[in-house]
Design brief:
Helices cover 43% and strands 16% of the residues. With 257 residues, it is of the alpha/beta class. Strand 2 (70-77), helix 3 and strand 3 (108-115) form a beta-alpha-beta unit.
Amino acid sequence: MRTSPPDRRAFLRQAFAVPAALAAQANLPASGALQVGPGSLRVVCVGGHPDDPESGSGGTLAAYAAHGHRVTIVYLTRGERGIPGKSLDEAAAIRTAEARTACRTIGATPVFAGQIDGATEVTPSRAAELRTLIDAASPDVVFTHWPIDTHPDHEAASLLTIRAWVAGNRRFPLYLFEVNTGSQTLGFTPTQYVDIAETREKKKAALFAHRSQNGERIYRDHHEVIENFRGREARVAAAEAFVVLASARGAQKLPGT
């Protein structure tokens, strides 16, 4: 039986409907990336070491702070083993100072959870400690590492945050970020993107504050590449990407956007 050729306009409508449907499912605007707006939300980010929150979500956190939201960064450790030739105490002092400078640049308040770099623990008592720190900020949204990562401290930060989220009856949405995808973060497939074109320079300045970690080289070799790639995916100049674990209220876009 002879069939009629497909209608070109119908074909194009169907083709363009697929990415539009996917964007709608992820609560994305037409550009593919969200933009933080003014408000007074309480935002918490948990990272394994000084420079991790800045690396994975620094542009987003800076956007929140710039628009009047209150941002708290919780560092699981002080990066005690991050400076060759320095004792744990010496390295901790240096990296704590760098983290405070980075937080001032972003507009965030630093909090230190007290675990030791390279010896982090995922236990009920450690989970309770972190939950206490998170609850103290009464967050509307929390960010932390994607849990599948080659660095055990990143995994610990993620798992402890997820435990705090579950124990708190998922009151807030939890967003998982990437760092050094391919070499550290593994199996990461974003569900939402945030446009960081306006805060990219502030993020860079925060990362560059981590002089002991050669922040400029790390940014150039890793994070700039990721920002450009996620920006291309989201059709903006630069973006940070996240996987969302919805709050008990159900799936939602990033609060404040």
